[in-house]
What does this fold into?
Amino acid sequence: MINFANITLGFTALTTALIAGLFYAYSCSVNPGLGKLPDKEYLAAMQSINVAILNPVFMLSFIGTLVLLPLAACQFYSQSLSTRFIFLIVAALIFITGTFGVTIFGNVPLNNALAAFDINSASIQEIATQ
It folds into this structure.
């Protein structure tokens, strides 16, 4: 049946899958590839990735998931607390804390520090400790 709740659930599944796929591909391919680079090239690549990821497609899926998971959970709330509602609320809490929270409070400050780091004028020791 096509209704607002099911449409919301469909878009929620899509944005969540896109973010999960990004994390999966990154951990299976990008991280191992970057790990093989010398320190200076690694930092330069990470600076480039941190700029490139801030695009409308990423933001739509990242922020979309943040908004859609709780919205979808609310759409399926009932007095009997259905299994669908429980799974959606747990997924929302995991995403909000484990993905969004870690990104905002952990990764973004690190990315900002990396963006401010001048690789070209840094010594080999400074690069190694960055």
In short: The two ends are 54 Å apart (CA to CA). DSSP finds five helices and no strands in the chain. The chain has one domain: 4-129. The mean pLDDT is 94.
